[in-house]
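Notebook, student rotation project (T.W.).
Task set for the rotation: take a protein with a known small-molecule partner, predict the structure of the complex, and write up what can be learned from the model alone. Partner molecule chosen: zinc ion. Sequence and SMILES entered below by T.W., checked by me.
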Amino acid sequence: MIQAGLQNLPNETCGFLSGKYNNITTWTEMKNSSTTPNSFFIKKEFVEEALKTIEIIGEEVIALAHSHPTSNPIPSYLDLRSHPDSTVKMVIVSYKYKNPLIKCYDINKLTYKEVPIYVNK
Ligand SMILES: [Zn+2]
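Predicted structure of the complex:
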């Protein structure tokens, strides 16, 4: 995920983190259909395709992840508003600093709370 985000710079990256028993093992990237920098828009068909892929390998979606190429890993108002499901966590990778920063949040309506993230690889 960190690699994918780096490759897509200066554009944002978005995808699902999935696994079993809250243990993240898989990254499924989705195509960013946004034409403006610092935002993303994923077409419904790409979301469905990604969800199907995760289902086929028998995993559950744990988090929806995206990158912040130049800003801190804090959810923006738009991030909160467009987050689809409070049972899915939000992961943000920031490339603002030399070492990418990863943060994970529980999203509840328009509020967020930082939670620890467990990534297996
Ligand atoms: Zn964001």
